[in-house]
Amino acid sequence: MMVEKNISQAVIRRLPRYYRYLGQLLEEDVEVERISSHELSQMMKVTASQIRQDLNNFGGFGQQGYGYNVKFLYTEIGKILGLEQNHNVIIIGSGHLGQALANYKSFGKRGFTFTAMFDKDPKVVGTKVGDITIKAMDDLGAFLKENQVDIATLAIPKDAAEEVADLLVENGVKAIWNFAHLDLEVPRDVIVENVHLSESLMRLSYDLNQNKGEYKKDAYKSR
Amino acid sequence: MMVEKNISQAVIRRLPRYYRYLGQLLEEDVEVERISSHELSQMMKVTASQIRQDLNNFGGFGQQGYGYNVKFLYTEIGKILGLEQNHNVIIIGSGHLGQALANYKSFGKRGFTFTAMFDKDPKVVGTKVGDITIKAMDDLGAFLKENQVDIATLAIPKDAAEEVADLLVENGVKAIWNFAHLDLEVPRDVIVENVHLSESLMRLSYDLNQNKGEYKKDAYKSR
DNA sequence: TTGAATTTGAGAAAAATATAGCAATATTTT
DNA sequence: AAAATATTGCTATATTTTTCTCAAATTCAA
Fold first, then answer.
1. Overall average pLDDT of the A132-139 stretch
2. Contact at 8 Å (CB) between A187 and B176?
3. Do B218 and A17 touch (CB under 8 A)?
């Protein structure tokens, strides 16, 4: 029977970073063949223990006295992340954000293929973004029925997002990459990965505030 | 003496989301005056206990038997996040991503003012993005010396990012909003908030893989 | 080839985070 | 005005996550 250990979100959040560092090692002039958790920990500024623990969730990738084979580990993490299989990605919204995402060449290397872009503005429908011709939003439903779409990217304002998300879900899309500033309501088997830029900026603002010592916790006690 | 309790990153990550929900309540047709941790917990799909615990890190904002005053709580969280003071933000890189960020109108509402944009491509220098005229990268150093810059946004490829970051740090910038796919090396008093889009997409891919049951942990055990 | 040095994997301990429980206090109802 | 209900803030408990430790396996140096 398969062991169904649940892997924590914290571990999963870190996996892509391991993948990035290992990829960098492979790209370097003198390609590194092996690396120990200790060496990697110094590069990445995390504990060696955490690296070993994280990797062990997925299996014993290393060897005592040797460390980890960089290429092997890189490939395995890629498999874990599902990067060895292709994903068809569409983008809803052809604004700057949508176009920025469409132009990320590096995504292609990792098994993500942008197959279509949609916009509701008739003025841009029919124009091209790279190789892709922007389609009308009205054609989205039909497109979804005729084409395999693994990931739909929502790069539209929040007011329009829920409606489009519903349409996506109705047509069997199982994963949404959401850049709209709201939490989408979707069935449990649909995955939503949020990129809330404004929240990121607020965290930065918070940290700035802390450094400046502007904010005094105590003040709130005596309101 | 001021109590110097350390507030965990987990709490800080959640604050902007509370802020967003409270803001939504204030924008609704029938403005809500008060809310209990229980009601908010149902909206946000977290436990009421967590909400109370989180807020209590910063002070007692609620009242027994009543709950929290929405407007008051919203304002206070805004203060905690440093949103009541203005931040001058510059953007390095005038590609689609840079322009997307420049056009986020909602940032302006929250005390972020975009004051300049830089690009190394002579063809775009001098052209306008909204009200802002794109400046040459060579002028960045001088600009930093003459203007107060609270946050610098790096929307450039990773190969150029470290060099620009060094220049920013040399000229006293204390906060970097980094969209380049690398970890910047900066002194400890400089804050870096990373937005690694490719990592976000990989997490989505991981989750997709899990749902499909494509990935079997056990397989790795017997390599 | 042998002994010293490395380094993993895994279990145990420690730390951090989240949840539950409840006294105190306010609000609402009767 | 009294009783019932609601709800916080805080403490205690439970859970999760991270770090520590070390035996076992491997590599490296002489």
1. 97
2. no
3. no
What share of chain B has pLDDT > 70, as a percent?
91
Cα B4 from Cα B9, distance rounded (Å): 15
Helix or strand run (H / E) with residue A108: helix A105-109
- What is the least distance, in Å, from the CA of A2 to any CA of chain B? 7
Q: Give the tokens for residue A223.
A: 């309101």
Q: Are B217 and A5 in contact (CB under 8 A)?
A: yes
Whole-model pTM?
Answer: 0.93
The structural domains of chain A, ordered by start, are 9-80 (1.10.10.10), 87-199 (3.40.50.720)
Residue A6 near residue B221 (C-beta atoms within 8 A) = no
The residue of chain A with its CA nearest to that of B215 is A80
Distance B64 CA to C21 C1' (A): 16
> How far from A171 is each of A135, A164, A165, B217, CA to CA, in Å?
17, 11, 10, 30
Task: Report CA-CA distances (Å) from B215 to A22, A79, B199.
Answer: 21, 8, 19
Which residues of chain B does A202 touch, with a Cβ-Cβ cutoff of 8 Å? Answer: 15-16, 19, 81, 83, 110
Q: Using 50, 70 and 90 to split pLDDT, how confident is the model at A28?
A: confident
How far in angstroms lies nucleotide D8's C1' from the CA of residue B33? 17
Q: Of all residues in chain A, what percent carry a pLDDT higher than 70?
A: 91
